[in-house]
Automatic annotation (TrEMBL):
Subcellular location: Endoplasmic reticulum membrane
GO biological process: fatty acid biosynthetic process
Record's protein name: Fatty acid 2-hydroxylase
Transmembrane segments: 76-96, 122-141, 178-200, 206-226
The species this protein was found in: Dipodomys ordii (Ord's kangaroo rat)
Cofactor entry: Zn(2+)
Domain of life, source organism: Eukaryota
Keyword check for Phosphoprotein: no
Any Pfam family: FA_hydroxylase
GO MF term (any one): fatty acid 2-hydroxylase activity
Length: 280
């Protein structure tokens, strides 16, 4: 395990609310050979995969045989703001300027007579809307994609689940895989940009997208901090850290919010303890 992970685990042991509870493993008798890349092994676990992947361990994971691909699957946390914040600022500047020209209108593809002008004063609202929409996307991806239960007979779907999110639950303190590497992230981000451009005027879509991009950066930074940070007891981030620890070590089928519990409230996926506290 990395030094940072050991330090984090060491500090967490002072507080039961955020103390990780790792599985004790006899590495020589585990279902996989930890001396070899795991991605090509997990698909053969079949019906044992789901239980195995939700038994967290304290060591990092090697996924690929190729050193190059293995390196590309990892990234440092600060690569996220370095890569995406300048793009977010650039898009915000460009699309605010476009809105300021005063010729952007909604619904022109349906009707020109009743189309709605979009003034520059709506820029903050569209930007915040992007942040909120990202928080919903964050929840939906985490719940329905990252926490899908792959069919036990499907070798490749088990592999896909493991590379997307299973490896994070197996080794939650592998700091090199806590944020999304920029290369694969760019494909997902491009998809959402194209999707918004198909349904909204360019300046409106671009402004919402810029807000969503900031939301994504905030999400990834909070996620990293929830694993390695030491928030003050009673603070918002402390409550989210305790919430996320429970998700990893107790309730993997609930508590899908990372940056907030908003959508867990809306879709009734709060953890059992949270539901109990809410009713008191």
């Amino acid at each position: 395990m990395e030094n940072g992970a050991m330090a984090a685990a060491g500090t967490q042991k002072t507080d039961p609310a955020i103390e990780p509870r790792f599985t004790v493993v006899d590495w020589d008798k585990d279902l996989v050979d930890w001396q070899k890349p795991l991605l090509w092994q997990v698909g053969s676990l079949g019906e044992k995969y789901d239980e195995w992947v939700h038994q967290p361990v304290t060591r990092p994971i090697r996924l690929f045989h190729s050193d190059l691909i293995e390196a590309l699957s990892k990234t440092v946390w600060y690569s996220v703001p370095i890569v995406w914040v300048p793009l977010m600022l650039y898009l915000s500047w460009v699309y605010y300027g476009t809105l300021a020209q005063g010729n952007v209108r909604l619904f022109t593809s349906f009707t020109t007579e009743y189309s709605v002008a979009v003034p520059k004063s709506v820029f903050p609202g569209l930007f915040v809307l992007g942040i909120v929409l990202w928080s919903l996307v964050e929840y939906l991806i985490h719940r329905f994609l990252f926490h899908m239960k792959p069919p036990s007979h499907s070798y490749y779907l088990i592999m896909l689940h493991f590379v997307m999110h299973g490896q994070h639950h197996k080794a939650p303190f592998d700091g090199s895989r806590l944020v999304f590497p920029p290369l694969p992230a760019s494909l997902v981000i491009a998809f959402f940009y194209v999707l918004l451009r198909l349904i909204l005027p360019e300046a409106v879509a671009g402004t919402v997208f810029a807000g969503g991009l900031l939301g994504y950066v905030i999400y990834d930074m909070i996620h990293y901090y929830l694993h390695f940070g030491s928030p003050h007891k009673g603070s918002y981030l402390y409550s989210m850290k305790a919430y996320h620890v429970k998700h990893h070590f107790e309730h993997q089928r609930s508590g899908f919010g990372i940056s907030s519990k908003l959508w867990d409230y809306c879709f009734h996926t709060l953890m059992p303890e949270e539901r109990h506290l809410k009713t008191q």
